[in-house]
Amino acid sequence: MSFELQLTVALGDPTPPYEQVRRQLAGHIEAGRLLSGTRLPSVRQLAADLGLAAGTVARAYRELEEAGLITTGRARGTHVTQGRGRTAFPNDVTKAAGALAAVAKSRGVSIDAAIESLRSAW
After folding, report:
1. CB 111 within 8 A of CB 74
2. pTM exceeding 0.70
């Protein structure tokens, strides 16, 4: 499985960039959007993609590894750890949730209001 999620770093955010990266990756892992065994980009690649220093991404990866969410090996690369995260959602549910999020964001709807909309539809 390849890494396909978008990560963003808001440089104006008071949260340090490494923490923004760590938080987003941890959230994707725990939500089941990054499944066990998924290979993550190298530190250098992700740093280049996000316009960050390699040390910033390395710190995020180090903290994720300390939390048991990922594992890194020189020859193997960095992978989501076995047995972590929730069970993955079916693809059609994930796609529908993504579509709801995209439309809600484009219309300025908050996540809480989008969740309420989903609850109403349930």
Report:
1. no
2. no
Q: Which CATH architecture has domain 17-80?
A: Orthogonal Bundle (1.10)
Q: Which helix (H) or strand (E) holds 28?
A: helix 17-30
8-65 pLDDT tens trace:
999 899 999 999 999 999 999 988 888 888 999 999 999 999 999 999 999 999 999 9
Query: Domain-by-domain residue ranges, the chain?
Result: 17-80, 91-121
CA distance 65 to 87: 20
Residue 1's pLDDT band (boundaries 50, 70, 90)? very low
| Backbone dihedral region for residue 41 (phi beyond 0: left; psi -120 to 50: alpha; all else: beta) | beta
Question: Rounded to the nearest 10 degrees, what angle do helices 91-106 and 111-121 cross at?
Answer: 130
- How is residue 24 written in tokens? 């987003």
Q: How many C-beta neighbours within 10 Å does residue 100 have?
A: 16
* Residue 17 backbone phi and psi in degrees, to 5: -55, -40
